[in-house]
């Protein structure tokens, strides 16, 4: 162990925290930010849509550009009625599971009401769709997340859960390691890395 003795009448320089402590703090802070971001993302694309009774869907084409681009994830939630200007997700053919997300540009009234839709980037209206074919109105979107969802495939829920568990575990490890290091140092003491 090294001992430093100050010359009479001088004040010794304060001990500097080791570089390892700085990098541990940076790593800990980065992990915390990533964990919060992942939890917010998981809430935005998985939890909130289910709570609202809707669904998160990936935009596959450029028909709604510049509003929504391929790879964006939109969250569509059922509404009692839809208005001109609403962006809705619907089945263009009744009974077909294919979904399209376009803007309502008009409506027909009468015995068989229908919505007229069009993609923002398209020059022509779509065929009219009945209210039963409309799945919901887009209430928000998350840019680029659809690319990630497509990359992990149908097991995206399991992948998000696994990554969240890993980040939570690593964050817990950092908290416990820091707590143990604090008990070894004692209050107000700084470790210097020397033995």
UniProtKB/TrEMBL annotation:
GO terms for cellular component: membrane. The keyword Transmembrane applies. Keywords: Membrane, Transmembrane, Transmembrane helix. CDD domains: S26_SPase_I. Its main location: membrane. Its EC number is 3.4.21.89. GO terms for biological process: signal peptide processing. Pfam families: Peptidase_S26. The chain crosses the membrane at residues 32-52, 157-176. Residues 36-106 form the Peptidase S26 domain. One of its GO terms (molecular function) is signal peptidase activity. It is found in: Membrane. This is Signal peptidase I.
């Amino acid at each position: 162990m090294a001992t430093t003795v100050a010359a009479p009448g001088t004040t010794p320089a304060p001990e500097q925290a080791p570089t390892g402590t700085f990098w541990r703090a940076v790593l800990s802070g980065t992990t915390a930010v990533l964990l919060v971001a992942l939890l917010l993302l998981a809430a935005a694309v998985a939890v909130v849509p289910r709570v609202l009774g809707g669904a998160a869907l990936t935009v596959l084409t450029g028909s709604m550009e510049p509003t929504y681009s391929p790879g964006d994830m939109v969250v569509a939630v059922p509404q009692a009625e839809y208005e001109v200007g609403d962006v809705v997700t619907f089945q263009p053919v009744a009974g077909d599971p294919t979904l399209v997300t376009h803007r309502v540009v008009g409506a027909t009234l009468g015995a068989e009401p229908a919505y007229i839709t069009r993609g923002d980037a398209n020059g022509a209206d779509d065929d009219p769709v009945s209210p039963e074919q409309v799945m919901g109105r887009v209430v928000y979107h998350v840019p680029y997340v659809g690319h990630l969802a497509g990359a992990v495939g149908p097991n995206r829920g399991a992948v998000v859960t696994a990554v969240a568990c890993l980040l939570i575990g690593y964050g817990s490890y950092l908290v416990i390691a820091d707590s143990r290091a604090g008990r070894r140092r004692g209050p107000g003491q700084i470790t210097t890395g020397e033995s």
